Amino acid sequence: MAVLEDAVSGGAVYARKVVMGKILVVDDQRNMRTTLAMMLRGASHEVDEAEDGETGRDRGATGAYDVVLTDLRMGGADGIEVLRSIKRAQPMTEVIVMTAYGTIESAVEAMRLGAYDYIQKPFGEEELLVKVSKAMETRRLNGQVQLFAQEFKEKYHFDNIVGRSQAIRDMLARVVKIAPTDATVLITGESGTGKELVARAVHANSKRADKPFVIVNCAAITETLLESELFGHARGAFTGAATARKGLFEEADGGTFFFDEIAETTVTFQAKLLRAIQEGEVRRVGENKSISIDIRVIAATNADLQDAVKERRFRQDLYYRLNVARFILPPLRERKEDIALLGAFFLEKYNRKMGSRAVFGDGVMEAMMGYAYPGNVRELENMVEQGVALATAGVISSDDVLPELPAARASTSGRTLADIVDEAERGAVVEALRAHDGSREKAAEALQISPTTLWRKMTRLGVTYDSN
To answer: Where in the chain is the domain with CATH 3.40.50.300?
Structure first.
């Protein structure tokens, strides 16, 4: 980061130096390493040198550097090993790899593993400084996002919502806007995407935060019991009802009621629920007197309620009543940039819970990044918990977290899941460019990503497009 250093004596400034960033140069060729260091120091960067991959790997993993510039081909630990070690220990540090002619495939592999960019030898000073400058800017912005996320969590109690993807940031911003209102909320998304966490975040940031937050899983209770649980019952209302009982609606008075798996209810029950929400009153089973309630309703489902309405499995009027403020949670496979953060979060959580100090071994994070996660965040959490429990000598291997990975990733043609995902991304990028006559800005907008992200994907996937 740019740091202004002043030497002051008696009120006079004698020297002033701007340090743009701290950079580590890793190269086993002394002349090349020295030349690079001179160029970078000439641009006001603070530079350290590492004479081999092992030294670069160890120094880079300390987190002392904004950018690491490493050669790919070195004796001993090569640039890929340096990259893996640094990104595993310090995800925020940006890595640029230097590659010679004929090793572009290795550079592309480095990009896939998390390198910010690559630069092909021979290169000029201007090209080097531009790439380093861009890497520094990315490092700065990511640092701001990290700080923003922490402040966001502390202010809005989002301790268990982890991620810095655009989808998560947009969702959290929406929570902040909607939570203070009394609007009914509908949360949709695949199983394991964190619907309950979002519901809790809405409640925690509402004016009802000091009142009850009551959860009922509609799929876990039969219709008869569900009605009794929610509305309560009079004494003798049914066999076994020896005393009158308040329902959960009454228990939640003044607070928030969260209906999980709302699509699993029957149409008959949905009619009673709709009346309770609209009228703000309930009637205990076996009684004629209505009781006023003041609750905010949040509902969640992994089903397509519009299809359920068309198939008459869900009341249209209840759907419209619930769908006032809508949150659509993306599956984990669509926000892969959050996998490393989530992995680190769960690793810390279960290390603390089990009193261990397990770490991810070589290649584990790469394997986790390439997995599709049909069970989403919940599946990732279970994987990490299992890994911590099974770790040998405190090191988690791929087999500990993904014992069925080869079968899960292999296709009939022998391609890995990562290959399949890359192919799908490549096709989507090419199609977007074709549809917008090669305009990267318009293609990026259509894909709902930034032009910079599109450029990086094109570089990583080897996509070029000429409108002619």
So the answer is: 166-330
Kindly report the backbone phi and psi dihedral angles of residue 283, in degrees, each rounded to the nearest multiple of 5, phi listed first: -130, 120
Higher pLDDT, 185 or 7: 185
Give the CATH number of domain 417-461; options: 1.10.287, 2.60.40, 3.10.110, 1.10.10.
Answer: 1.10.10
Domain 333-409: CATH class, spelled out: mainly alpha
pTM: 0.56
Q: What is the CATH number of domain 166-330?
A: 3.40.50.300
pLDDT in tens, 188-234: 999 999 999 999 999 988 999 999 999 998 888 877 778 778 888 77
Nearest to 105 by CA among 73, 74, 132: 73
Mean local confidence (pLDDT), 128-145: 79
| Window from 49-53, 141-145, 159-163 with minimum mean pLDDT | 141-145
> Under CATH, to which class is 3-142 assigned?
alpha beta
pLDDT value at position 233?
73
SS3 readout for the chain:
CCEEEEEEECCEEEEEEEECCEEEEECCCHHHHHHHHHHHHHCCCEEEEECCHHHHHHHHCCCCCCEEEEECCCCCCCHHHHHHHHHHHCCCCEEEEEECCCCHHHHHHHHHCCCCEEEECCCCHHHHHHHHHHHHHHHHHHHHHHHHHHHHHHHHCCCCCCCCCHHHHHHHHHHHHHCCCCCCEEEECCCCCCHHHHHHHHHHCCCCCCCCEEEEEHHHCCHHHHHHHHHEECCCCCCCCCCCEECHHHHCCCCEEEEECHHHCCHHHHHHHHHHHHHCEEECECCCCEEECCCEEEEEECCCHHHHHHCCCCCHHHHHHHCCEEEECCCHHHCHHHHHHHHHHHHHHHHHHHCCCCEECCCHHHHHHCCCCCCHHHHHHHHHHHHHHHCECCEECHHHHCCCHHHHHCCCCCCCHHHHHHHHHHHHHHHHHHHCCCCHHHHHHHHCCCHHHHHHHHHHHCCCCCCC
Q: What is the pLDDT of residues 77-103, one digit of tens each?
A: 888 999 988 888 887 888 999 987 656
